[in-house]
Amino acid sequence: MEDSAAVAGLLWDRWLPVGVRKLIAEALPQGEPDARALAVWLAGVHDIGKATPAFACQVDQLADAMRDQGLEMRSVRALGPDRRVAPHGLAGQVLLGEWLEERHGWASARTGQFTVAVGGHHGVPPEHGQIKALYEHEELLRTPGAGSRIWRQVQTELLDACAEQFGVAERLGQWRQVRLPQPVQVLLTALVIVSDWIASNPDLFPYFPDGASRGDQERLAAAWQGLDLPEPWRAEEPDRSAQELFTSRFELPAGAEIRPVQDAAVELAREMETPGLMVVEAPMGEGKTEAALAVAEIFAARSGAGGVFFALPTMATGNAMFPRLLDWLDRLPGVAGSRHSVHLAHSKAALNEDFAGLMARTGGVAAVGVDEAAPASRQRPEERHRAGGELVAHAWLRGRKKAMLASFVAGTIDQLLFAGLKSRHLALRHLAVAGKVVVIDEAHAYDTYMSVYLDRVLSWLGAYRVPVVVLSATLPASRRRELVAAYSGRNEAVAGETGAAAADTYPLLTAVAPGGGPLVRRPQASARSSEVRVEPLADGLDVLADRLENELIDGGCVLVIRNTVRRVLETARALRDRFGAENVTVAHSCFVDLDRAGKDKELLRLFGPPEKTDARPSGRHIVVASQVAEQSLDVDFDLLVSDLCPVDLLLQRMGRLHRHWRGPGQQERPERLRTPRCLVAGADWTADVPALVRGSVAVYGQHALLRSAAVLLPHLEGGSRRPVRLPADISTLVQEAYGEAPVGPDHWQEAMKTAGERFERHRDDQAERAAVFRLGDVGKPGRPLFGWVAAGVGDTDDTPAGRAQVRDSRDSLEVVVVQRREDGSLATLPWLEPDGKGRRRASLELPQDATPTRFAARTAASCGLRLPLQFSGETMDRAIEELEHLYLPNWQGKNSPWLSDQLILALDEDCQTHLAGFVLRYSPSDGLEVTRDADD
After folding, report:
1. C-alpha 175: how far from chain center
2. How many CB atoms sit inside 10 A of residue 494's CB?
3. 406 φ/ψ angles, rounded to the nearest 5 degrees
4. In 426-517, where does DSSP find H-type helix?
5. Can you list the positions of beta strands (E) in 272-307?
6. Are 88 and 55 contacting, i.e. CB atoms less than 8 angstroms apart?
7. 550: Cβ–Cβ under 8 A, 6 or more apart, which residues?
């Protein structure tokens, strides 16, 4: 108990961000001294429930010693299953509540808001029914009869001693009148959990008699030194101009001026009396990421945030953001040259070379939460490597429940949405975000199901006063209003005030403080603008090839984006027949991880900014890609061909067209391609109502596609007379496509009405299903967190199953792909490039009767592949059964951390295999292709 209390004090003094401490302090009469004392006291008494018969009976030898002192108790067998009614957390909550009532005159209605931190310290605050059940089994708290008085006396003496020892005995009288806000209850619970986990680690606090040679303070100092937690960021508000700020934080070219949106974002952040939510709507390529980081620095200084979480839609975008975050941190005052924790938060982060390099710098503290499986430690704390002034992926902060507690995190949006999912140890997720500035990128990319969670998370972030920056190039006005209302908690005011922005207002900045009204700024667009001619293209492969042959007569680089992987591969085959395999590149999501990363690097090398690459093809080259080319990759093409998709996504795709200047007047581009043009395929444009290709409807739905076609129709029919003006037309197109007013010709309206009704039913269904496990709204101050995560999902993390809880996606299988040689042996894939240190990764031996080497296992794990939706539903069960025929205990057991519990997909020497009635073919150029097995 003393160890936990001492750790809580150190966490308060040296680890908790200022903003978190301030929020707790504001709820108590004497501010921070009260807040620190409360945190220390709750951590000190959190295990008082172990002083009960239900807990103490578990070890006969110890129970007998207690019986000798008059503390009678029945045996474990005699108590039977009733013991489950009194887990020690709940028992402690009840004992502490009784003590506050009996010894300090508290009303029973006021105790729960404090005692719930004890009851919930194993991750789940008790429910009302559990509390009632325990009161009906008082024998689990104190053995009836003569021993009951002695049990009560011991429990009271322990709690009295804790109150004196931890300095709250004189404060409890005044705290009786306090009403703790629910966010404060959550933070105190989380602090108790973290304190308990650290104090329960035998590496840091050795058990008796190993630690008996040290005094309490010496023992605590040694433990804290061994843990070596980096301190939080303490931001100082920059006082320089926006131009000077960007020049010092980002690698701007000499003489470059910042964009008006960036300047306006910094000024608006400085104008806000209280940091809050800022929504930045601006075109692609306007530097929204840099604007968000600059605003985050100002918000952090004003709010006391101790870090930043940058949330992105996918692992790929998270990987792309991570080195940019590190570059910013290297230039950030208060971080550069000091030691702070950094994390890449997604399920494959350990395979990212930038993050792996940070992990390699630090030794390990084998400390995990007591509610997790703990690996054995082979080193004493004082022997472990200590990192100097640097960014570190701290060992203790790598656990699946603790990773988000690092100061600076880039990761998938799922990590944020989990804060709105009723799950075990949810308090830790809330503590993690409560101490940061949160940046949400690509806000337009999240559907109704995800938005249900996001809106609830924003309401809690507003209650925590967490600054949030939301970025989007194409955000519907209705969605902007929902985000602002969720954060501010003011639906009525927000609807009128944010609605004042005209549909064509763009760029647009909207800011709101918790509980406040919106501020709107309308910065000028930058001088960068373009006019994209949009033309319909009949959906035939020969039509496409003929058109490209004509367009590329003088050379040029074309991006063809298809809405499904099947269409990508069909298109690539047809274009290779016409243009040659060497002139056609394929990119989509069905590549193993290493190949996918290699594809991204190759695309950047060939088609990246002119100042960063000189490898752009001089002749004809065509990239056929799926949606992976929509976002995050800074690539630039002369001509765009796209399947019809929702208009906001089509505008994102247009952001890859003439993205950079290539000579005055684009003279370095082929003459025919100096005017940006987008050819829209994926539909029969000659039909009365556009006939959409089936795959596109399956991905996006008929409603979104028809409204997209309707708002594009004037541009499609107008040709050169009605180009899409970027950025001027972005907001108009998006607001019309996502508005409720009818769009399109009269003879489309019946089909669009039917599609709209189908979409509304689907959206209602998504919202209803998402609400099942969604966290409740913030309750009134003083209302205990009892039942806070009742009827939740249990444990959750960033696995396919975990992500499926906050995304409306069908279950999918993920496999590790290896090759089976002719002699039956297994090896890594034969075409893999060497790693960053030059080590060979191709054709590494993977012994089946032994554990692969760490490097070979990591390489194999880096070839993870998400199987397509053909392998969901009933087919998934069959696929799993067939994959489990290849079971290798030395791989999939606990001997290999990289391959443990993974399903292995072994390709033959021709890189083919059969699975669940399908033929799977894989190549490094085309990725995975799945066809029906004719023999099945």
Report:
1. 37
2. 24
3. -60, 155
4. 426-434, 448-464, 477-488, 491-498
5. 277-281
6. yes
7. none
Q: Residue 333: how many CA atoms within 13 Å on its side-chain side?
A: 13
Q: Which ranges in 166-241 belong to alpha helices (H)? A: 172-175, 182-199, 216-227
- CB contact at 8 A, 632 and 289: no
Q: How far apart are CA 385 and CA 453, in angstroms?
A: 41
What's phi and psi for 326, nearest 5 deg?
A: -65, -40
Give 231's DSSP letter. P
What is the length of the chain?
A: 936
- The DSSP string of 61-73 is HHHHHHHTTT---
In sequence order, the 6+-apart residues with CB closer than 8 A to the CB of 13 are 36
Conformation bin of residue 935: beta by default, left when phi > 0, alpha when psi is -120 to 50: alpha
930 SS3 class: strand
pLDDT band at 378 (very low <50, low <70, confident <90, very high): very low
Judge residue 50's burial from the number of C-beta atoms within 10 Å of its C-beta, 0-12 exposed, 13-18 middle, 19 or more buried: middle
> pLDDT tens-digit profile of 679-727?
999 999 999 999 999 999 999 999 999 999 999 999 998 766 799 998 8
Average pLDDT score over the chain = 89
Burial of 173 (0-12, 13-18, 19+ CB in 10 A): exposed
Q: Which residues of 904-913 are buried (b: 16+ CB within 10 A; e: fewer)?
A: bbbbeeebeb
Write down the H helix ranges in 2-125: 2-14, 18-25, 32-45, 53-56, 60-67, 76-79, 88-104, 108-119
The per-residue pLDDT for 403 is 74
- pTM over 0.85, yes/no: yes
The rounded distance, in Å, linking the Cα atoms of 572 and 574 is 5
| β-bridge pairing 508-512 and 677-681 | unpaired
Residues 719/679, Cβ–Cβ less than 8 Å:
no
Distance CA 309, CA 317 (A): 14
Least confident residue range of 133-142, 488-497, 890-899: 488-497
Cβ atoms < 10 Å from Cβ of 778: 18
3-state secondary structure of 819: strand
Largest CA distance in the chain: 100
Evaluate whether 907 touches 568 at the Cβ level (below 8 Å).
no
Supply the DSSP symbol for 637: B
Residue 142 CB contacts under 8 Å (≥ 6 apart), including other chains:
52, 53, 148, 151, 152, 155
**632: amino acid identity, one letter:** S
